[in-house]
Amino acid sequence: MVLERRSLLALALGVTMLTAAGVRAQDRFIVVASTTSTEQSGLFKHLLPRFEKKTGVQVRVVALGTGQALDMARRGDADVVFVHDPAAEEKFVAEGYGVKRFPVMYNDFVLVGPKSDPAKVAGAKEALEALRRIEAARAPFVSRGDRSGTHAAELRLWQAAGVDLNKAKGQWYRDTGSGMGPSLNTAASMGAYILSDRGTWLSFKNRGELAILFQGDARLFNQYGVILVNPVRHPHVKKEWGQQFVDWLVSPEGQQAIADYKIGGEQLFFPNARG
Amino acid sequence: MDTLSQSFVTALALVASFDRELSAIVLLSLKVSLTAVLIATAVGLPLGAAIAVGRFRGQQTLTVILNGLMGLPPVVVGLLVYLLLSRSGPLGEADLLFTPTAMIVAQAILITPIIASLGRQVVEDAWREHKEQLRSLGASDWRAALTLLWDTRFSLFTAVLAGLGRAAAEVGAVMIVGGNIDGVTRVMTTTIALETSKGDLPLALALGLILIALVLLLNAAAYMTRQWAARHYG
What we know:
The complex is a heterodimer of chains A (about 280) and B (about 230).
Chain A: H1 2-22, E1 29-35, H2 36-40, H3 43-55, E2 58-64, H4 66-74, E3 80-83, H5 86-94, E4 98-114, H6 127-137, E5 141-143, H7 149-161, H8 165-168, E6 173-175, H9 180-190, E7 193-197, H10 198-203, E8 210-214, E9 221-229, H11 239-250, H12 252-260, E10 262-263, E11 266-267, E12 270-271
Parallel strand pairs in A: 1-2, 1-3, 5-6, 5-7
Antiparallel strand pairs in A: 3-9, 4-7, 4-8, 4-9, 4-12, 10-11
Chain B: H1 2-17, H2 20-53, H3 59-69, H4 74-85, H5 100-136, H6 141-151, H7 153-169, H8 172-178, H9 188-197, H10 201-233
């Protein structure tokens, strides 16, 4: 009996140590903190194999909202950030957490809502007017509320439109505090309006009665940038491989790869590293 | 209704096609959760037995704390382990964040109280019954605890399975400490969460069905092992 107990214990310990040893095999990798829009739109699945084949460096993407992604990098848990909130990115670099910010690509935000369009957003001439119509109709609007790039853009738009969100909260303005996809799911089941990045919208499947109602205003421009985390601040940052990734994204080859990515014939991101 | 039937078809198709990506995800899920269960069992059962049999101050407090920790929210455990393993955290040098090891640690912390608590109850009941007998044989408390653990092993099995169920089902902790990195730390539950947020509800549910089937299979295997062991060693 004693013997069996011992052998059981030895077996358990053995298995534990074996699995623990096998987990950290590959060392040539970098961690990239990025946004749900780039991950969920399938862009990384398209880009990364090309970069990995060329350099042999594996890219591990952790997809979060832009605010969270920058925070993660501030704590030193990422080598590169690839996000879409230029103001927050500049601040990140100015604080000394990032080396330099490079613009990579852009697409745009779209105003999505129920096809019946109770607030008559589709007839608006510009984005701010569209938002004011939503407020006037007190039509349900779903906000990310998660400090993501899209959330920041949304707040800037409301402010420019002169709408006081404090009054609206809890009534027609619903703050979900979650990612683009979950928020779209919520909007779809509530028949609410929502601001989405085009990439996530195009790859989103559970649209229900939702459709794009307003698009094309210059205010809906959505710029993505990439930054190497500052090795001075975090000495463990894999600066060579991280820089390789940054350089590749803004190189003609990387820019072409971005332009090549399409869903249903529609291009999702437009490279603009060269300004 | 349509989504449901679509999910069943998708689930069957996925299993039948033996999708390589899916198999890798399933294997990682099993590896992470089973390893966490092994660790939690190795720590939790002796701990539970010691509390059941031992005579020391604070025994009841410890029991209450352990019972309470059975309800640890996975997200909180995830955050805690994240902050520990973060580069700015005390264990940052280990460079374990966003690895399967980090996920194992988080799940082990999550389920150790479950296994310890349920194990303590089982051993305590047996202790009440056999206390006099064991004492009269001159067994030390330590010796008695070990004997009782062995004698109640079949009941303790359920405690271990409860831990496994919790580990296999949780998403909050592994999402935070693993980061849901494609091909590295993506497991069943984080894949389901991802597909849900992509709005692919049929695929998400199909993966859920596969996960449930998997846990059922594990339990069936465990049950049969138990039966077999009971016949040979019981």
